[in-house]
């Protein structure tokens, strides 16, 4: 019985589809003001169901696909930053993740969010996979 349950859970923990991502965010653009301070975050177009970008230090950013890895094929599967501004939550399944590194902190998701590579040249952030 436990083998069947484990097998079912593993199927629901699917891989978020890999799509081409090549996004540039210019920090001098007023619409990107949220990323000019450490701790700031914003949603951008790209990835599967959007990308969340978070500034974790003066020169370091992280970017995650907003698709929850628990049943990613479900249309309602999308993570959003909660009111604490430190946790991403998928309200359709209840999974929660740390905004700083995408790691799961509440099930049913058992794997981290898909992370994209970021580079910062002092003026612009580039997000790629």
The CATH class designation is Mainly Beta
Biggest beta sheet summary: 6 strands, antiparallel
* Overall morphology: globular
Biggest sheet, strands in spatial order?
1-10-9-4-3-2
**Total discrete domains:** 1
Distance between the termini: 39 Å
What does this structure look like?
This protein has 129 residues and is mainly beta. It has a single domain (2-128), classed as Rieske Iron-sulfur Protein (3-layer Sandwich). Helix content is 9%, strand content 36%. It contains one helix and ten strands; from the N terminus they run αββββββββββ. The strands form two sheets. It has a six-stranded antiparallel β-sheet with strand order 1-10-9-4-3-2, with no helix packed on it. Strand 6 and strand 7 (96-98) form a beta hairpin.
Quickly list its features.
mainly beta; Rieske Iron-sulfur Protein; 1 helix; four-stranded antiparallel beta sheet; 129 residues; single chain
């Amino acid at each position: 019985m436990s083998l069947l349950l484990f097998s079912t859970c593993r199927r629901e923990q699917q891989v978020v589809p890999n799509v081409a991502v090549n996004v540039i965010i210019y920090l001098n653009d007023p619409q990107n003001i949220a990323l000019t301070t450490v701790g700031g975050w914003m949603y951008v177009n790209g990835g599967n169901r959007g990308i969340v970008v978070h500034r974790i230090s003066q020169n370091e950013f992280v970017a995650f696909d907003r698709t929850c890895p628990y049943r990613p094929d479900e249309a309602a599967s999308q993570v959003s930053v909660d009111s604490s501004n430190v946790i991403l939550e998928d309200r359709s399944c209840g999974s929660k993740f740390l905004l700083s590194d995408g790691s799961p902190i509440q099930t049913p998701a058992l794997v981290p969010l898909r992370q994209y590579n970021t580079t910062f040249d002092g003026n612009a952030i580039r997000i790629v996979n």
